[in-house]
Amino acid sequence: GSAVVRIEGYADERGTGEYNLALGEKRAQMVKKYLTVFGAPQNRIATISYGEEKSFCKEHNEECWAQNRRGHFVVVAR
To answer: Is the pTM of the predicted complex or chain greater than 0.90?
Structure first.
């Protein structure tokens, strides 16, 4: 089977939950756009936003927040 890459968009804890979900989605979509510009097939890239949920770093400071603003890649089976 063909593999699919899922780009998970995340945001830091600041802002409302709804706002952070939108930021995570925007971040994931921008990563997908970047990959497709360089030839990655759109139908093999999925996106999802987790906003501020599932944060990587649990501290409440700028260094930690920067780690939580990210696009995370996961390879999934199709």
So the answer is: no
Q: What is the DSSP string of 5-71?
A: EEEEEE--SSS-HHHHHHHHHHHHHHHHHHHHHTT--GGGEEEEEEETTT-S--S-SHHHHHHHS-E
CA distances (Å), origin 69, targets 19, 34, 37: 13, 17, 22
- Residue 56 burial (CB count, 10 A): 12
| 1 SS3 class | coil
What are the residues whose beta carbons fall under 8 Å from the beta carbon of 61, sequence distance 6 or more?
none
pLDDT digits (tens, 9 = 90+) for 13-37: 999 999 999 999 999 999 999 999 9
14/49 Cα distance (integer angstroms): 16
| Amino acid code (one letter) for 10 | Y
Return d(Cα 32, Cα 65) in angstroms, integer: 22
